[in-house]
Structures are given as C-alpha cells and as structure tokens.
Amino acid sequence: MANFFLDNDDLRFQFEHAFDWSEIVRLTELDFEAPEGFRSEQEATEFYRDVLENVGEYVANEIAPKAQIFDERGCSFADGEVSFCDELDRIFKELGEMGLYGLTVPRELGGLNAPLSVYMALNEMVARADVSVMTHFGFHGGMAMAFLAFAAKEGSVETDGKSFGKTRFDREVREIVEGKAFGAMVLTEPDAGSDLAILRTRGVERDGRWYLTGEKIFITSGHAPYHFVLAKTEADKEGLEGLQSLSLFLCRRFVERDGERVKNFEVARIEEKMGHHASPTCAIVYDESEAELIGERGQGFELMLLLMNGARVGVGFEGVGLAEAALRLAREYAAGRTSMGKTIDRHEMIADYLEEMESDVRGMRALAFKAAYYVELYNKLELYERFRPPASELERQRLKKRIESLKWKARELTPLLKYISAEKAVEIARRGLQIHGGVGFTREYLAEKLMRDSMVLPIYEGTSQIQALMATKDHLLGTIRDPQRFVRHRARAQWRMVASADPLERQLGTLENNAYSALQHIITRIAKDKLQTVAQRPMTDWAKAFLKDWDPRRDFAYGLLHAERLTRLLADMAIGRILFEQAQRFPERREVARTYLERALPRSRFLLDEIHHQGDRLLARLANGATRTDKEQAA
Question: What is the per-residue pLDDT across 421-456, written as a single tens digit (0 to 9) for each?
Fold first, then answer.
C-alpha cells in the first residue's frame, strides 16, 4: 500500500537527523519520570515513527485518492450551519479515532504526548494529500495546545513536577482530544486585515462579565465551538491605544441561558473560494456574545501572537506538503509523456524544472524542521522551568539566556519559512501545471487544483509581504543595535568565501556575503537618509536622534521597499547553512546541499543587483506624496 512517510526519503531524513532528539524527548517526558511515560529516548522515538508510518499509510490511501471529491463537494452552508460532505465527515471522524487530535496533548488530558515536530511532520503528509483537509485538521490539535499554552502563561496549570495536572481549560482540551470540538483563531475584520490596531470588534465588561460585539471575516473553521477572539477593550483611565487596547477572549458558540442551550454568535456565511474547498472560511457576527477574558486586559496581541507564530510554522509545512504533491505529480506525468522521441522528463528544460523543484522542496523542508525545532525547544524549556525550577540562581540565569537565544532563532526563521514556503509552493504548483501542458489546465489531473489551493498560502496567517517586513525590520534593527555582531558574521562569510578548503563551504560563504552585502547596502542608505533628517535638528539632539529615535515606518523606507528581495536572500542563506551543516555530518547529503547552493547563488547575485540599482525613483515619488496615477489625473 502507498505510504507518504515511507516513500519520502528526504522527509524521513529530516525526521531522524534534523536535530538531536535526546533533549526534546527528555523534556517531553520530564526526565522519563512521568508515571505513564516512556522510559528511554529509543522507546519514544520508535513510537513517533510508528505514528508517522500509520498516518502516512492512512493519508495516502484514504485522503489523497478523494482529493477531487473534497474539492467538488467540500462543505456547504444552510440556516446558519456549516456541513461537510459525507466523505469528509468520515475522514475527520477517523482522524479523531486514531487519537491524532490529541497527538501533542499531555497524557493526563487524554493525549499522546508527542512533540510538536512529530505533529508538523504529520501535517506535511496530510497537506500532500489535501491542503484543505490539513487546514481543518490543524484547528483541532493546534487549538488544544493553544488552550494549554495560555493556561501555562497565566499560571493556571497545576503540577507535581512529574505530570501535567489540572488546568483552567481541561474540559475544552478533552473535548477536542475526543473529537467532539475544535477551535478557531478570530482576527480579521472588514477593512482590518494586517493592521490589527484598527480592529472594531469591542469587548465590554459589565457586572464582572465580558460581552463581544462586532463582525469578523475570513475565519478558517469559523463554525468551531470555541473561538479565540481578538477584540478592543473599552478605553479606560489608562488610555489604552493601538495594539495595547486589544484583549483576547474565549467565546463559546453555544451557552446556557435560562436553562436552554442557545447560540452565542452567528455564522453569517461561508466564502466561495478559488481553492481549499474542504476548509470552510466563515464570516462571524458577535452581538453581545458572552466571552471569557484570557490573560490580562491589553495582553491580547501578545497572546494571539503565540497562536499566529505556531500557525505560520504550520503553513510552512503545509507549503512543503503541497509542493511535494506538485513535484511528484509533475515528475510522474513527465516520465510517461513522450514527445519528439523521448519522455519529456529527458528534455533539458523540463529536467531543469524538475531538478529545481526538487531542490526547493528539500530546502523548504530543512528550514521547516529547523524552525519547528527552535519553537518546540524554547517552549519546552519554559514549561520545564515552571515545573522544575533550577536549583541555583546561576542555573536559572543560564537557562533564561538559552531560552532567549532559542526564541530569537525561532523569531528569525519563522517569517523566512512562512515567506519562502508559501511563495515556492505557488511557484512549484505553477511549474507543475506547465509541465502538464494543456491537460494541466483541465480537471483531468490534479495540477490545476494544486495551483488553486496554493494561491492562499502567501495570504493567510500573515501575508508574504508582512513576513518580509518582519524579517527585514528585525535584521535592520539588530544590525543597527549590534554592528559588531554584523561585522563578525560578515568577516566569517568572507573567510569562508575565499579561504575554505571545501568548495561547498566557499559557495555558502559567497551566498552569505551576498546577503550581508545587501543588508549593509540597505543600512548604509538608511543611515545616509537618516543623517539628512538629523542635520535639520539642533546639534544637541543629533546623538539621540541618530542612535535612539528610530521609527521603522519613517526611517526604513529604502529597506521596506526591498524587504521581499532581502527576505529571499536571507531565506536562501538560512537554508544553505542548514543543508551545509547536514552535509558535514552526513556525506550523502552533500549533493543535496551542492544542488541548492548552485541554484541559490545566481538568485542572490540578481537580488543584490536589484537592491543596489532599483528604487530611488519610486521612493522620490512617494516622498512627494503622489503616485504616478495621482499626477496623471491631476494633469
């Protein structure tokens, strides 16, 4: 039988070797002292592998063959209720029966207590079978872990140091694990997408209870029993503004009133979409809907960011799964389609397409596993610190420093992963369709479905442009605040480029140097523009204005213009480093690294050239406060 885990050598390699399992397992199993836990790393990892093998077989034989059915029948909406087609209902019921909704949930709450990295590898396989199934699936286990993360953050988790005790949200988590419920992240509103500070949904407190009023749109699985809702709290004497005015609420779809079970909010409609037809995208209306504050007032954006960052890593794996499906479909078609006396996979241009698609998928997957590892490790260490506080102040400080380092690495890689995985998924699906030629444009093959499904990846859970802006701002601010660190990294890249005895490392050094050259050029240009504005202020203000008073929206214009170009450079550099590290440890991976670096280097030179020579004219026009269209209309 087909198996999406066993047939994928690269996925198995990343699962087995992308990182050291020993620490993840030890933290997950609380030093192997949990009453019903595993007693060794080997015992645990064998279980994880068994889970992935079983899921790999299930999705290959039960979900993938029905992808077109899900696309055609998907879900429907009538009388305020969302319904799945019978085939989807059966799939989601069986996924629950397999215990997968509680894969990462502690055993004490009915889960399997597996690490996040296992869950993400599983998501890639489900996405390869059908991304819309994966999307709704993710709003089960992912939301269960969100409940636990919020409980841990607010300190409402009881523990004896050897097991996960009672939490504030036990009932909700158990319902999700048992397949009786799921959740939804509720952020977007009409006219308020990426700019969350202008949300209009209000949370009002009366007599010790909270009530929500407002409209939300584009809510994935919005018919969920549990909503995590971001809303503005009423202004008070503290004068909360912008993101500080946002609070996070748990809003249940059904509540008890006067002894009756009634709807607490309305699902107004589901969207008619280009793709993802098995994943309902809902519009929601809250009208004095009862809600429960999570965390503290004004802490909403910070708490929702925990969910959003996890979801962005999930989308990274989703993009890998879809790209893997597109690659395999194109490769199979090309190997069977004869033209001009040979199969088209032997034609030079098609062979080049297929090799680049494969190289990109492997690079995306390597980055995805590395990002998931950092996210998991810092979260696990934070929980471990709460359950088992360090014995000494020195140990506590060391642990705190390590957690902060891991958080920064996760923050650095997450937007790069979300950006490159989403963009490459679209690119690979597009090339896959092209390889199919005319039949790719028909519904006879899945190529057109994969193309349609891919188009939302650069949009939801933070657009590609938002990811690029986040990555660019972090690197620019980091370089400005710690220029010595930048100089050290640039020097190391230049040494690699010219002095390493390993040709693979020289290629990596060149790629790194191109990325750092782009970053240095942008910062130099920003500094030049900043000096011009500083010179207009009194001389006594110069030091403060240049060293401290930085406004990313005002002062980083040149960097923001080139944010996507810089992000592509940074993503290639991150992937190149990961693949080179793996090649050093496993010689059989040198060809994977070499192929990726050979293709990344010309891209980096082109992007660097664009950054050096484009943008001045556009920035000048924007600075004058008028677009070309504005001027033409005025004329």
Answer: 999 999 999 999 999 999 999 998 999 999 999 999
In sequence order, what DSSP letters do the residues of 302-347 get, joined into one string?
HHHHHHHHHHHHHHHHHHHHHHHHHHHHHHHHHHH-EETTEEGGGS
pLDDT band at residue 26 using 50, 70 and 90 as cut-offs: very high
- Residue 175 structure tokens: 């319902």
Distance, in Å, from the CA atom of 136 to the CA atom of 215, rounded to the nearest integer, reads 22
The pLDDT value recorded for residue 549 is 64
Q: Could you give the C-alpha distances from 174 to 141, 153, 179, 227, in angstroms and in order?
A: 11, 19, 9, 16
CATH architecture of the domain formed by 183-298: Beta Barrel (2.40)
Question: Which of 22-36, 331-345, 364-378, 434-448 is the least confident region?
Answer: 22-36
Q: Which two tokens stand for residue 324?
A: 């893997």
Residue type, 397: Q
Instruction: For 381-397, give the secondary structure using H, E and C.
Output: HHHHHHHCCCCCHHHHH
DSSP codes, 103-170: TTS-GGGT-----HHHHHHHHHHHHHH-HHHHHHHHHHHHHHHHHHHHHHHTT-EEE-SSSEEEETTH
Q: Say how far apart CA 375 and CA 406 lie, in whole Å.
A: 7
The pair of three-digit structure tokens given for residue 7, joined into one six-digit string: 């047939």
The type of residue at 587 is P
How far apart are alpha carbons 473 and 553 in whole angstroms? 10
Residue type for position 576: G
247 forms beta bridges with 231
Whole-model pTM: value is 0.94
- Convert the pLDDT of each residue in 254-291 to its tens digit: 999 888 999 999 999 999 999 999 999 999 999 999 99
pLDDT tens-place string over residues 306-346: 888 889 999 999 999 999 999 999 999 999 999 999 999 99
**Percent of the chain with pLDDT strictly greater than 90:** 74
CA 390-394-396 angle, 5° bins = 35
Cβ(563)–Cβ(469) under 8 Å? yes
Which tokens hold the place of 131? 């991304």
Chain center to CA of 194: 15
The answer to whether 28 touches 21, Cβ cutoff 8 Å, is no
Residue 534 pLDDT level (bands cut at 50, 70, 90): low
CA terminus-to-terminus distance, the chain: 69
Give me Rg for the CA atoms of the chain. 25
Which helix (H) or strand (E) element contains residue 230? strand 226-233
What residue has token string 């015992």? 43
Quickly count: other Cβ atoms within 10 Å of residue 331's Cβ.
Answer: 18
Identify the CATH number of the domain defined by range 1-181.
1.10.540.10
Identify the pLDDT of residue 194. Answer: 73
- Which distant-in-sequence residues (6+ apart) come within 8 Å of 80 by Cβ? 263, 266, 267
State the DSSP H helix or E strand holding residue 366, giving kind and residue range, or none if neither. helix 348-387
DSSP states of 235-267: P-TT---GGGGEEEEEEESEEEETTEEEESSEE
Partners of residue 282 on adjacent β-strands: 219, 270
CA distance to 206, 357, 455, 566, 601, per residue, from 572 (Å)? 52, 14, 22, 10, 9
From CA 251, how far away is CA 211, in angstroms rounded?
A: 9
Beta bridge partners of 256: 261
